[in-house]
Amino acid sequence: MGSMLRIAIVSANILLALFIFQNGFLLKRQEISATSSCSDAHAQPGETCWMSQQYNRTILILVDALRYDFLIPLDKPKSSESPEWFYQGQMKEVGKLIKSGKASIGTLLADPPTTTLQRLKALTTGTLPTFIDAGDNFSPDAAVNEDSFIYQAAQLGKNVTLFGDDTWLSLFPNKFSKSAAYDSFDINDLNSVDDKIAPKLEEEVKYSESSSIIIAHFLGVDHCGHKFGPSHPVMADTLRKMDRIISKTVESMKPTDLLIVIGDHGMTSTGDHGGESDNEIRAGILVHSKKHEIQLPKTSIHQIDIVPTISLLMGLPIPFSNLGTVIVEMFQRDLWEMAVGMNYEQVKRFAETYASQKNFGELHSHTARDSNTMEEQIKTMSRIQTLLRVAWTQFDDAYINVGLFSLIEAVFFLITNEEMSAGWIIYRTGCALLQAALLTDKTDSDGSARTMILMALAVSCLSSTISLAHRALRISLNSIVSARVIGKKKE
Ligand SMILES: *[C@@H]1O[C@H](CO)[C@@H](O)[C@H](O)[C@H]1NC(C)=O
Ligand SMILES: *[C@@H]1O[C@H](CO)[C@@H](O)[C@H](O)[C@H]1NC(C)=O
């Protein structure tokens, strides 16, 4: 009976210690399921929803692993020995578009982990990643529960067409009015998906008017990276093929269409991705429209900034949990203030909701004061984004320490093999309750629960040490005594 109780209590202690420990490691972003609606913002005069639709269609070409430097129209390196030979300056048609000023390119910064599933979520919801999700890359039913521009488009009765990777269908079940999606897990198969979707994209762009958003996800560059790395003749072929697809799309586009070509992440010099090195987080972006000449900013754009930009340009509400900032350069000058204002109100709405629903009081200092000028609003959004990025991606040392110390203490307690007295039961139960309290009250902002646990644990460790020392002393005394006894017997 006593030993059962002992095992039960110590097991509880160890389990709680492990939970506390993991709490320090896992990223803690919690999803908010609220969605934006047309009535959330004061609509532009004469509009029923936030802002008037600027383009009839947005064509979003997602080139998996399109690193920023693949797009830059540099001259080919002099020597075929150089590693850049196979990927620099391969996209000739794109180069012509850029040089003639018809298209503009920039750098799109992805948040790590740079895995495709995480990037697709960020690119549609405007949120930052959670670490637990990194394992979900292969889980079949990873439907996006948060608000996204795809949900918003479907909600407003606008058609969204998808060509490409079937991951999209599991992320957004029943949200696409038309789709041609294929399995993408065979990285040895470089071309079959791309070859199937390229003619479909061309046909859709040329002849169909029914979709407001067309998404085409090409996989060849990523698969080639995984198989051969970027410095390989096959990469040159694949990039030239993407170049043809992009220039064909540009030719087929109507004057009221907007083309956005982006990479979801980059790749290392060996063709891998997932981490946070410069080459992995720097993806490329290209925009083109016949209606307006767009000049992207020279500074890096955050990947999630795509989300509010596409939303407002297409006359949709910005997704509720978005943290991105509109790329004003993609709007006409007279719309900048309005776009930023709507974006600011939305980010503020999200921050206030997150602060109150998830006990994250630090956000209030940023939402309490109203920012009135465009510059201030952009700064406030960026501060909120930074605060949450840091909070969601930092390891929490306090939790890790308490968890580790709790674990050591429990093990220490086990090896002392002390009798379970009533006092000990009360003490250990108390410890477990304190640990549980620390787990449920995640904020513990003044750290009182942590301090109390650490003090209690220290006392217990001290007591275990004394008891161990006591036992060791007793054993050695006993052996001395028995040695004497044996010695005496021999005499
Ligand atoms: C764009 O959409 C409007 C309204 O739906 C339509 O009248 C117009 O013809 C479209 N323009 C083009 C070029 O498709
Ligand atoms: C959406 O697509 C369907 C058929 O695919 C079409 O009947 C409908 O008119 C489209 N809706 C819009 C808003 O274009």
TrEMBL record:
<keyword id="KW-0812">Transmembrane</keyword>
<dbReference type="InterPro" id="IPR002591">
    <property type="entry name" value="Phosphodiest/P_Trfase"/>
</dbReference>
<keyword id="KW-0472">Membrane</keyword>
<dbReference type="InterPro" id="IPR017850">
    <property type="entry name" value="Alkaline_phosphatase_core_sf"/>
</dbReference>
<dbReference type="InterPro" id="IPR037675">
    <property type="entry name" value="PIG-O_N"/>
</dbReference>
<keyword id="KW-0337">GPI-anchor biosynthesis</keyword>
<dbReference type="GO" id="GO:0006506">
    <property type="term" value="P:GPI anchor biosynthetic process"/>
</dbReference>
<dbReference type="GO" id="GO:0051377">
    <property type="term" value="F:mannose-ethanolamine phosphotransferase activity"/>
</dbReference>
<dbReference type="InterPro" id="IPR039524">
    <property type="entry name" value="PIGO/GPI13"/>
</dbReference>
<keyword id="KW-0256">Endoplasmic reticulum</keyword>
<protein>
    <recommendedName>
        <fullName>GPI ethanolamine phosphate transferase 3</fullName>
    </recommendedName>
</protein>
<keyword id="KW-0808">Transferase</keyword>
<keyword id="KW-1133">Transmembrane helix</keyword>
<comment type="similarity">
    <text>Belongs to the PIGG/PIGN/PIGO family. PIGO subfamily.</text>
</comment>
<comment type="pathway">
    <text>Glycolipid biosynthesis; glycosylphosphatidylinositol-anchor biosynthesis.</text>
</comment>
<keyword id="KW-0325">Glycoprotein</keyword>
<dbReference type="GO" id="GO:0005789">
    <property type="term" value="C:endoplasmic reticulum membrane"/>
</dbReference>
<feature type="transmembrane region" description="Helical">
    <location>
        <begin position="6"/>
        <end position="27"/>
    </location>
</feature>
<dbReference type="Pfam" id="PF01663">
    <property type="entry name" value="Phosphodiest"/>
</dbReference>
